[in-house]
């Protein structure tokens, strides 16, 4: 018993060392739903990464943003009531390997995105903008504009996404390529017509308690993936994934 | 002779002048309308002067009058003419932050005060709040921060405490950093024909009536990011009594009309007549007494609510009650029409209400007391409510078996909201721990199929259902009653 | 001096020709003029698209377009229609510091060609609030800055425009307001044409009107500048580069520092300038300041036609030795002619936002000054057809500098100080003070004072050569022999 206690204390102290907490407002993030916070969020992540890692906390409110990039050892906590709102302008999503996504991690590790908060992809607004742009001919039709993922993970490892409600995405909720040790748990993905999950060339991707609502295709596994574990994950009609 | 006449006339004229001298223009005191000069001290001097002269009206004509906190005094009336804007400074140090409840316009123990006219009070609250936050984060001011926002020192637009004969008429009040206007322990207050636009920041209640006696809120339009029309009771020895809310329209990203949350003393003889609620995130009407307050003799008549997240939420809790148990007795709700939204009703408004308590299908109206403190004598008469339905039991499920119903937590110590229990077992009404609940002419419409029944009663000691009808799509069955007793109406 | 007309001809023939290509509407790229959306990335996407398509104009119709930093690219012109406001974001984190120029800006162009910003619209940096927010970030400890004079360093605050090493640049008709730092910098650009712009630049500290740094072939014409710091400012940041072939014509300037300035940073030099028809008013320091204090040179300059009203000082020519690093500065071949100037008794920029600082007191009204160094003399300066009206009233009880050798030698050299006309505090003349110079000519120069002054009109110290034809008046009465020569030779006085 004592041994366990000791271990717990040790674990707790490690946690304390690494998990420095930062509030989003410290970096000027505004929860009014209209201020685009991408500059502040990116600065916050870079700053926390420079300080050796920690967690960026978003409390109840609506935080509008465009693409931002995750860095190793910087985690994000969306507390209940906090909504990360994706911009309704496609150009606020930067291109990365020809793909657009709201949250991008390339070559990063040890990241958690957690909490009971929400990420809202603003599907319908984005779709109508893309249609309008197409009509004007100002974006190349070859580009898969609709494929704006919520979270794009590439060549990253030890990533956990937990508890989030993910709404109204244009592309795949999670696009996972060449990653290892990715855990998606207790997610509620509600997005008419889009893809829940796309996995390719990855190792050990775990899904547990993920609920796919109004999804076109829940899971797409491309070649080269090993160990995609599915536990207790369901579709809207109650069927197990 | 002629000279005498002239003298008399001059004398008379002088008399008229002194009579009229009860009106003072702002410029007399060097108050400037350029929007950049900080007028705090000159407005205060004007108020003090008028007060010392025995009272009068301070009149602001068209222009922007920048100011920090000013304290209203007895017999001083502020007249904001059309186009005049009293603009709150964005510098937090221009407010009386050393007192609790700092505010742009502050009054305490004052009698006969008025704010009227077609002018505007603009608190510039978002900027004030963010500047305050910056001062906290720079370490100059100390604040624990609630939800990453300053807990203390956010100025209200109007705070009046222990005042008598207050009249607020015609003005527009907007952009506060906190609750917009609070009338606390005031007696004989009339707020009439005001417009409130209160979506600048968090906690932006539209109007807070706290422990007031003889209060009338009439003919007003209130749009707020937090509760729109809100009755509170901060003092366990006081209560809101004889309050009338009539002909008002409310929009809220919380509740349209709310009793509570803080409800230490209680609410007596409250009449809520002919009001409208729309685009409201939570309940059209919430009566909550989680802090030991006594609620009795409440009349809600002629309420229309459309595009709202929930119709009614009546709740006794045990949060900060310090051993006293609250009560709710004699509530009549009649002539009501409500349409509950399927989508988020406040989508697109500034400071939208938070998505929370998920997973959860659309929630029913709820009347939830405590085991040892049932809600008593509630009558719903001539009610028409349309619910969206369309629930998905794979997403969230609560059955009607005894085990399922008993699994609903009591949550007596939690913050009371209609969504707090997450999934509830009914789509229309869920009633638990109540006594003498009467439905008379209640039509509930379901727009899409629902796996749940219309009514679930659990521990209701005496209920009557007269002319209760379900229309629209199908629910499972109409009524599930557990541990409840039917009585004659 | 003969070279001037030739280069003038060349530069007048210079008109920046931009590729006339397709017009693109900003709104078609999802750029929103609602005053709320942050357009940084959509503006960038539009520019990238247009440059890739071979170039054209990106047209902003009336609206308020908020943005952070973006890059203008080759063959792209921003057209701001009247009523279109490009507004700087108030979030300092929406700007970045370009690694080439090491400075923050809203609009960058780095090594691009054929670019422009045109139209009657406005670029408004809204810099005051951004600077306030940036200070808060420093106080919170999340941004590092040493806070000089309680303000972020100027490179950590955004300018409206920063172009570097660009060719063929057209800036026309736009209004530029309220930057967080200097307003617009053109650094090592070639063929720069600035015409008809209106600059209101007094929202914050260091708000220069325009900074032209080490550029070649520049025309600034028909422009209006109102600035808290220097209004029209030429600089030389690079010791191996030069600001040259410049025409400034038909411009009006108001400043709480200097109206037309060379320097302060002056490492390389300034050559072949023509300044014509310059109007200066309500300006705190000098109408004209030429400073060579960092090893640079000033050569072959013609200033022709200046009206300077309510301005604290008229001419200040100065060689110093501040950051020279051994480089030898020089200043020669300068003609300033056809000048009418009035110097007020009171502060000329009273009431303007960000008034110039009251300093170097006590001091009576300062004279025009030409001040070299003992080893680096200012050479061959001609002042022609000039009338300067001073208030006079220099009071020796308030501040005193006599003309005895001890007093004159007592004036410090201040070689490595920041150069300003007031830096020596009290000077011994009220009209013109010359020190360490060669060949200073005065042709038809008139000095007037309204009230008596204890000082003579002109004092020269260590001057060799020159022909003086000047008159001096006190309230209409001719002051005779009102000059003092010290260590001076070969000066012919008519």
Helices, strands, pairings?
The complex is a heterotrimer of chains A (about 240), B (about 500) and C (about 500).
Chain A: H1 2-18, E1 20-23, E2 32-36, H2 38-50, E3 54-58, E4 61-65, E5 68-69, E6 74-78, E7 82-86, E8 95-96, E9 99-106, E10 109-114, E11 118-120, H3 123-136, E12 148-154, E13 157-162, E14 165-167, E15 174-177, E16 180-185, E17 188-190, E18 195-200, E19 203-208, E20 211-213, E21 217-221, E22 226-231, E23 234-235
Parallel strand pairs in A: 1-3, 2-4, 3-6, 4-7, 5-9, 6-10, 7-11, 9-12, 10-13, 11-14, 12-15, 13-16, 14-17, 15-18, 16-19, 17-20, 18-21, 19-22, 20-23
Antiparallel strand pairs in A: 8-9
Chain B: H1 2-20, E1 23-25, E2 34-38, H2 40-52, E3 56-60, E4 63-67, E5 70-71, E6 76-80, E7 84-88, E8 103-108, E9 111-116, E10 120-122, H3 125-137, E11 156-161, E12 164-169, E13 172-174, E14 181-184, E15 187-192, E16 195-198, E17 207-210, E18 213-218, E19 221-224, E20 229-233, E21 240-246, E22 249-252, E23 257-263, E24 266-289, E25 294-316, E26 327-340, E27 365-368, E28 375-389, H4 402-406, E29 429-448, E30 455-472, E31 479-482, E32 485-486
Parallel strand pairs in B: 1-3, 2-4, 3-6, 4-7, 5-8, 6-9, 7-10, 8-11, 9-12, 10-13, 11-14, 12-15, 13-16, 14-17, 15-18, 16-19, 17-20, 18-21, 19-22, 20-23, 21-24, 22-24, 23-24, 24-25, 25-26, 25-27, 26-28, 27-29, 28-29, 29-30, 30-31, 30-32
Chain C: H1 3-13, E1 22-25, E2 34-38, H2 40-52, E3 56-60, E4 63-67, E5 70-71, E6 76-80, E7 84-88, E8 97-98, E9 103-110, E10 113-118, E11 122-124, H3 127-140, E12 159-164, E13 167-172, E14 175-177, E15 184-187, E16 190-195, E17 198-201, E18 210-213, E19 216-221, E20 224-227, E21 232-236, E22 243-255, E23 260-266, E24 269-292, E25 297-319, E26 330-342, E27 368-371, E28 378-392, H4 405-409, E29 432-451, E30 458-474, E31 477-478, E32 483-486, E33 489-493
Parallel strand pairs in C: 1-3, 2-4, 3-6, 4-7, 5-9, 6-10, 7-11, 9-12, 10-13, 11-14, 12-15, 13-16, 14-17, 15-18, 16-19, 17-20, 18-21, 19-22, 20-22, 21-23, 22-24, 23-24, 24-25, 25-26, 25-27, 26-28, 27-29, 28-29, 29-30, 30-32, 30-33
Antiparallel strand pairs in C: 8-9, 30-31
């Amino acid at each position: 018993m004592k041994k366990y206690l000791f271990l717990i204390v040790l674990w707790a102290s490690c946690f304390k060392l690494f998990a420095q907490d930062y509030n989003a407002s410290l970096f000027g993030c505004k929860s009014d739903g209209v201020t685009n916070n991408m500059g502040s969020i990116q600065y916050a992540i870079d700053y926390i990464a420079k300080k050796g890692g920690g967690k960026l906390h978003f409390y109840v409110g609506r935080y509008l943003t465009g693409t931002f990039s995750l860095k190793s050892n910087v985690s994000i906590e969306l507390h209940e009531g906090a909504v990360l709102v994706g911009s309704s302008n496609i150009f606020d999503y930067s291109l990365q390997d020809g793909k657009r996504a709201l949250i991008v991690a390339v070559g990063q590790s040890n990241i958690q995105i957690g909490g009971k908060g929400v990420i809202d992809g603003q599907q319908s607004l984005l779709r109508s903008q893309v249609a309008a742009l197409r009509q004007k001919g100002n974006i190349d039709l070859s580009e898969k504009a609709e494929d704006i993922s919520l979270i794009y993970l590439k060549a990253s490892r030890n990533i956990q996404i937990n508890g989030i409600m993910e709404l109204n995405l244009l592309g795949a909720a999670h696009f996972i390529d060449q990653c290892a040790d990715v855990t998606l748990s207790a997610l509620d993905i509600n997005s008419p017509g889009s893809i829940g999950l796309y996995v390719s060339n990855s190792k050990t991707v775990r899904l547990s308690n993920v609920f796919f609502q109004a999804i076109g295709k829940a899971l797409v596994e491309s070649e080269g993936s090993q160990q995609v574990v599915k536990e207790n994950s369901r579709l809207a009609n109650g069927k197990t994934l | 002779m002629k000279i005498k006449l002239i003298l008399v006339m001059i004398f008379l004229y002088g008399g008229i002048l002194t009579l009229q001298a009860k009106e003072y223009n702002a410029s007399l005191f060097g108050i400037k309308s350029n929007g950049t000069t900080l007028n705090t001290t000159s407005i205060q001097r004007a108020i003090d002067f008028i007060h010392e002269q025995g009272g009068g009206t301070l009149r602001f004509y068209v222009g922007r009058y920048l100011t920090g906190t000013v304290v209203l005094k007895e017999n001083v009336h502020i007249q904001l003419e059309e186009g005049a804007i009293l603009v709150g400074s964005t510098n937090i140090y221009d407010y009386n932050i050393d007192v609790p409840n700092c505010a742009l316009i502050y009054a305490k123990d004052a009698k006969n005060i008025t704010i009227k006219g077609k002018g505007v009070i603009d608190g510039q609250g978002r900027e004030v709040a963010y500047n305050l936050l910056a001062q906290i984060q720079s370490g100059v001011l100390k604040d624990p921060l609630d939800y990453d926002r300053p807990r203390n020192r956010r100025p209200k637009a109007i705070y009046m405490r222990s005042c008598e004969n207050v009249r607020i008429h015609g003005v527009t009040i907007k952009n506060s950093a906190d609750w917009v206007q609070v009338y606390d322990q005031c007696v004989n207050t009339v707020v009439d024909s005001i417009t409130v636009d209160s979506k600048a920041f968090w906690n932006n209640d539209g109007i807070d009536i706290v422990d007031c006696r003889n209060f009338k809120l009439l003919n007003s339009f209130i749009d707020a990011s937090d509760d729109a029309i809100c009755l509170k009771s901060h003092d366990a020895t006081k209560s809101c009594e004889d309050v009338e809310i009539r002909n008002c329209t409310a929009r809220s990203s919380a509740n349209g009309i709310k009793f509570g949350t803080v409800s230490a003393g209680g609410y007596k003889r409250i009449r809520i007549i002919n009001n409208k609620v729309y685009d409201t995130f939570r309940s059209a009407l919430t009566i909550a007494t989680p802090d030991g307050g006594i609620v009795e003799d409440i009349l809600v008549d002629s309420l229309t609510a459309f595009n709202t997240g929930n119709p009614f939420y009546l709740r006794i809790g045990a949060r900060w009650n310090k051993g006293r148990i609250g009560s709710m007795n004699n509530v009549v709700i009649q002539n009501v029409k409500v349409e509950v939204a399927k989508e988020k009703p406040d989508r697109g408004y500034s400071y939208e209400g938070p998505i929370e308590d998920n997973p959860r299908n659309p929630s029913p109206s709820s009347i939830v007391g405590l085991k040892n403190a049932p809600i008593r004598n509630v009558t719903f008469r001539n009610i028409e409510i349309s619910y969206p339905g369309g629930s998905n039991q794979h997403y969230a499920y609560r059955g009607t078996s005894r085990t399922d119903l008993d699994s609903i937590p009591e949550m007596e110590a939690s913050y009371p909201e209609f969504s707090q229990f997450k999934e509830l077992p009914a789509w229309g009404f869920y009633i638990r721990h109540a006594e003498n609940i009467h439905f008379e002419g209640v039509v509930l419409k379901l727009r899409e199929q629902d796996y749940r029944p219309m009514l679930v009663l659990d521990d209701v000691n005496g209920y009557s259902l007269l002319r209760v009808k379900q229309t629209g799509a199908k629910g499972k069955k109409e009524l599930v009653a557990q541990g409840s007793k039917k009585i004659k109406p | 001096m003969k070279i001037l007309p030739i280069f003038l001809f060349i530069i007048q023939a210079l008109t920046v020709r931009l590729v006339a290509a397709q017009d693109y509407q900003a709104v078609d790229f999802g750029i929103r003029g609602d005053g709320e959306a942050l357009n940084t990335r959509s503006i960038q996407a539009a520019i990238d698209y247009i440059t890739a398509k071979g170039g054209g104009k990106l047209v902003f119709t009336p609206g308020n377009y908020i943005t952070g930093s973006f890059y203008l690219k080759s063959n792209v012109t921003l057209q701001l229609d009247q009523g279109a406001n490009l507004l700087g974001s108030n979030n300092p984190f929406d700007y970045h510091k370009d690694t080439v120029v090491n400075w923050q800006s809203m609009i960058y162009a780095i090594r691009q060609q054929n670019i422009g910003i045109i139209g009657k619209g406005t670029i408004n940096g809204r810099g005051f609030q951004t600077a306030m927010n940036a200070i808060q970030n420093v106080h919170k400890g999340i941004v590092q800055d040493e806070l000089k004079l309680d303000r972020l360093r100027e490179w950590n605050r955004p300018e409206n425009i920063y172009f570097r090493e660009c060719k063929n640049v057209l800036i026309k008709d736009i209004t530029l307001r309220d930057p967080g730092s200097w307003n617009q910098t053109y650094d090592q650009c070639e063929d720069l044409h600035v015409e008809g712009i209106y600059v209101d630049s007094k929202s914050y500290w260091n708000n220069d009107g325009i900074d032209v740094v080490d550029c070649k072939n520049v025309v600034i014409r028909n422009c209006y500048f109102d600035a808290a710091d220097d209004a029209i400012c030429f600089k030389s940041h690079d010791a191996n580069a030069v600001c040259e072939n410049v025409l400034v014509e038909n411009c009006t300037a108001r400043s709480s520092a200097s109206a037309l300035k060379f320097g302060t940073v002056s490492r390389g030099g300034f050559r072949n300038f023509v300044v014509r028809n310059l109007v200066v008013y309500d300006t705190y320091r000098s109408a004209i300041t030429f400073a060579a204090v960092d090893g640079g040179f000033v050569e072959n300059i013609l200033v022709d036609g200046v009206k300077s009203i309510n301005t604290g000082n008229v001419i200040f020519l100065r060689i110093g030795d501040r950051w020279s690093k051994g480089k030898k500065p020089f200043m020669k071949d300068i003609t300033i002619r056809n000048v009418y100037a009035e110097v007020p008794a009171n502060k000329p920029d009273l009431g303007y936002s960000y008034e110039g600082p009251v300093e170097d007191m006590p001091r009576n009204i300062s004279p025009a000054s030409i001040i070299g160094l003992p080893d680096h003399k200012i050479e061959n300066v001609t002042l022609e057809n000039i009338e300067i009206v001073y208030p006079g009233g220099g009071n020796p009880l308030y501040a005193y500098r006599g003309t005895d050798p001890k007093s004159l030698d007592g004036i410090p050299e201040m070689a490595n100080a920041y150069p300003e006309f007031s830096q020596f505090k009290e000077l011994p003349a009220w009209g013109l003070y010359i020190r360490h110079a060669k060949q200073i000519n005065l042709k038809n120069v008139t000095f007037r004072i309204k009230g008596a002054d204890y000082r003579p009109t002109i004092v020269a110290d260590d001057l060799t050569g020159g022909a003086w034809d000047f008159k001096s008046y006190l309230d209409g009465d001719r002051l005779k022999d009102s000059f003092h020569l010290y260590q001076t030779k070969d000066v012919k006085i008519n």
